[in-house]
Amino acid sequence: MTRIHEADVMETSPPRRDEIDGRVRVTTDVGGRAPLWFSVDELFGDLVSDRADHVLIALLMPAMKEGLDLHVGGTVSDSLLHYANADLQRLLRMEHPDLSVIQVTADAPVAPAPRAAGVATGFSGGVDSFSSLAEYLWGDDVPQSLRVTHLLNNNVGAHGHGSIADELWHRRREPLARIADELGLPFVTVDSNLDEHYPRIGFIESVTMRNAAVPHLLGAGIGHLHLASAIPFPYVRVDDTGEIARIDTMLVPLLSTAAVTIASANSGLTRVQKTLSLIGRPESQHLDVCTDGDPARTRNCSACSKCMRTMLTFEIAGHLQEYCPGTFSYERYAERRDAFVAKVLSSDDPYHREIRAYATEVGWQWDAADRRRAALEAARTAASRAIRSAARMPLLRSLRQRLKG
Q1: CA gap 349, 351 in Å, rounded
Q2: Which helix (H) or strand (E) holds 73?
């Protein structure tokens, strides 16, 4: 394989494996910056692959962001290397035009290894991850080759940065471990300093690449990953939002090999349908949809937009009482319900449109007061947009500048 001039390349060493404090750590030296490492509990050390496919996936976007070619030390699956020099980069650049075209090489490109039998899915306790279990663990007709055998929880940037983020991850994973124990499934926690290698790329802009590195790290025991979809098929598109999850259904096939396949799970379901699929499952009492980042939080805040959206869906379905007070606080929801319903009825947000469509489907009747508040909310939103639009008009900008002068 042709090597690239060192000044223009992000070059990594072959991964090395160590056992530190009861965990298996896989470390890769990265020229000119901190080593990249991942670690798992020693109980799951047999899952860890000796290949460097996870390194390629983990560092591809940072290298493209810096305009540096990427040379991966060690063994890399040849099909993944091909994608990385072709459609994978093309698709990433459609979503992120600021990324550069680079050349990706490896010490030893070889055919993919035999596929392992393990089937994993990420588990955060949210609607998407529970919905994946509803189909691929509890489903009566799911084939054995797709039935979940392992739950994953990754610390790759979702919890923020630094020691505070690490503390938050540890707190959040404790109740998830108890749920996994109830389900009788191994709970594999994957720690990493990967976020340090994304200083110029946000988590929302790169979440798929970060999480896709993990099943390849575990490729000796995991052969398939159900990547819980956050975006249903009608909203899949390349756009300028930078939200990489919008292209997951197109992206994850390019992050797969014959040894490790990744599929976007439940992309054919709306958020409402996923939420409804949890009703009646005792495990859903552990549902955690909250965006409140307080490390001391022990249950859903029942006030953020995701909590409100989930609770309103349960209310329309006639099952909200089953989740209060254990999972949610009805009192906090009630305090904000009127204002939230006004937004749902007046907003063009796709999740709000789903709720309205479901309410119509089941014959839910909105109160007259709800409709009046929604009309006022719509008027305020329209007025705000008109003011912002007018402020961008050249004549008004020129007038403001003259007044300032």
Answers
A1: 6
A2: strand 69-77
Residue for token digits 């160590």? Answer: 18
Whether 290 and 304 have beta carbons less than 8 Å apart is answered as: yes
Which H or E element spans position 168? Answer: helix 162-183
DSSP-derived pairing of the beta strands 222-228 and 118-122: parallel
The token pair that represents 10 in the structure block: 């992000």
CB-CB contact of 210 with 159 (8 Å): no
Token digits of residue 148: 């979940």
Which pLDDT tens digit goes with each residue over 225-250? Answer: 999 998 999 999 998 788 999 999 99
Give the whole-angstrom CA distance, residue 111 versus residue 379: 60
Q: Where are the beta strands (DSSP E) in 161-281?
A: 187-192, 222-228, 261-265
DSSP characters over 87-141 = HHHHHHHHH-TTSPP--EEEEEEEPPPPPPSEEEEE--SSHHHHHHHHHHTS-TT
Query: 325 preceded by cis ω (within 30°)?
Result: yes
SS3 label, residue 261: strand
pLDDT tens by residue, 260-300:
999 999 999 999 999 999 999 999 999 999 988 776 777 89
Spell out a b/e string for 371-389, using b for 16 or more CB atoms within 10 Å of the CB, else e.
eebbeebbeeeeeeeeeee
Residue 263 is classified by DSSP as: E
Residue 87 CA to its chain's centroid (Å): 21
**Residue 180 CB coordination number (10 Å):** 19
The pTM of the full predicted model, rounded to 2 decimals, is 0.89
Encoding tokens for residue 85? 């020099």
Please check whether residue 267 is in contact with residue 249, taking contact to mean a CB–CB distance below 8 angstroms. Answer: yes
Distance CA 398, CA 38 (A): 54
Segment 86-95 shows an average pLDDT of 97
Residue 113 · residue 63 · CB < 8 Å: no
